Amino acid sequence: MMLKLRGMVDPHVHMRDLAWAHKATFASETAAAIAGGYWAVFDMPNTPPNSTSHTALDLKREALAKNALCDWGVYFGASQEDNWGEYAHISGVCGLKIYNNATTGSLLIERQDKREQHYRHWPENQVIAVHAEGQTVLEILDLVRKYRKLTHFCHISTAEELRFLKTAKEEGLPISIGVTPHHLCLTEEDAARLGALALMKPELKTRADQQALWEAVRSGLVDVIESDHAPHTLDEKFSPNPPYGVPGLETTLPLMVTAVKEGRLSEERLVELLTLNAHRLWKIQPDSETYTLVEMDYPSVIDRQDLRGACGWSPFEGMRVYGKVREVWIRGQQVFDGNDVLVEKGFGKNVFGR
Predict the structure, then answer these.
(1) Which residues contact 263 (CB under 8 A, 6 or more apart)?
(2) What DSSP line would sit under 11-50, residue for residue?
(3) Helix locations, 265-348, DSSP H
(4) Mean of pLDDT over the chain
(5) Nearest Cα to Cα of residue 273 among 180, 200, 206, 183
(6) Residue 102 — very low, low, confident or very high, per pLDDT cuts 50/70/90?
(7) How many alpha carbons lie under 13 Å from residue 329 in its C-beta half-sphere?
(8) pTM listed for this prediction
(9) How far apart are CA 234 and CA 126, in angstroms?
């Protein structure tokens, strides 16, 4: 059986490049995105130089314009340096990212009064994406309640957080929820086996949390499956101080197709989670000639030798999955034939203009 997915979007990736080009590049990771079935990916602002100024933002967009193979978007980053004065002149981005937990440097914003200034100044019609865990979710919801600006809660990972957000949706607050494949398919029980390859933020959680995530995915509470693709080299991962983050662009679709095959997810929900909801939330619309064909019944085993991403490993290696990307088309041009990426660097366009 062949399923046609129109305009797959991953609204949460870290493609590296720039000062972290040794980890991955815009070319390597957008090639991985295409092989994973994606039309467009939205890059987070925490690769140095952090996208917290117009200068850094322009540097990233220029590099993407020259090197991206699939279409793309970029987030602007909220900073401790009170950079909200730049927001009035921001254009051509997919949203603002605010890190409220578990990050380092000038992107971590722990004071609620600082967060409020970012909410106050960010334009009304653009998404705010947040990293918020545990009780911090409630603090961010207070700002959503006050400013009524659409807020996307990234990589939600616990039953408690889901309860907070379910109540907020019932209240009518303008929020959306993203969940990652690693929180759906792995738990803290896998950490001993995987070691540093299981290190990510938020961390892997309990089996009970995992079950709550699946129920929220099935019920419609969750809006988007996002990979939080965050590659690091194996040398870095096996170092004395391994960094947090795992790759996921090429494994998200087969993991979700497998969930459909196993009866944990409906095909209709798969389409919503990987395409339609992101189109609605970010107000984007792929044309009729932008789509992915996936062979649903194709079985395989995830193997690092088959991956195009630069880091060359996956926490899901060895898992038996279904789903083979047979074709990807972007703006009327075939960009993937099931084996090879067919376009050159620079083919990808900024979905949000400029």
Answers:
(1) none
(2) EEE---BTTBTTT--HHHHHHHHHHTT-SEEEE-S-SSSP
(3) 267-271, 277-282
(4) 97
(5) 180
(6) confident
(7) 13
(8) 0.97
(9) 36
CA distance 238 to 195: 9
Average pLDDT over residues 213-236: 98
Residue 183 CA to residue 19 CA, distance in Å, equals: 29
pLDDT band at 103; cut points 50, 70, 90: low
Q: In whole angstroms, how far apart are CA 74 and each of 77, 90, 94, 330?
A: 10, 12, 6, 19
Cβ of 18: how many Cβ atoms within 10 Å?
17
Judge whether residue 48 has pLDDT over 70.
yes
Q: Where do the DSSP E strands lie in 90-248? A: 95-99, 127-131, 151-153, 175-179, 224-225
Q: What are the angstrom distances between the C-alpha of 27 and each of 9, 229, 246, 337?
A: 17, 15, 18, 18
Report which secondary-structure segment, H or E, holds 330: strand 320-330
Q: Rounded to 10 degrees, what is the CA torsion of 42, 48, 53, 57?
A: -40
Q: Determine which helix (DSSP H) or strand (DSSP E) holds 293, and give its type and residue range.
A: strand 291-301
Helix %, strand %, coil % of the chain (to 5): 35, 20, 40
Residue 154 pLDDT exceeds 80: yes
Reported as a pLDDT band with limits 50, 70 and 90, residue 106 is confident
176 vs 183: CA distance, rounded Å: 17
**pLDDT at res. 354:** 63
CB atoms inside a 10 Å sphere around CB 241: 6
Instruction: Supply the pLDDT for residue 105.
Output: 63
Given CA atoms 316, 212, 156, 148 in this order, what sign does their dihedral have?
A: positive
What type of residue is 255?
A: L
Query: Which residue, among 200, 222, 248, 97, has the nearest Cα to 156 in the 3D structure?
Result: 222
Residue 131 has pLDDT above 70, yes or no: yes
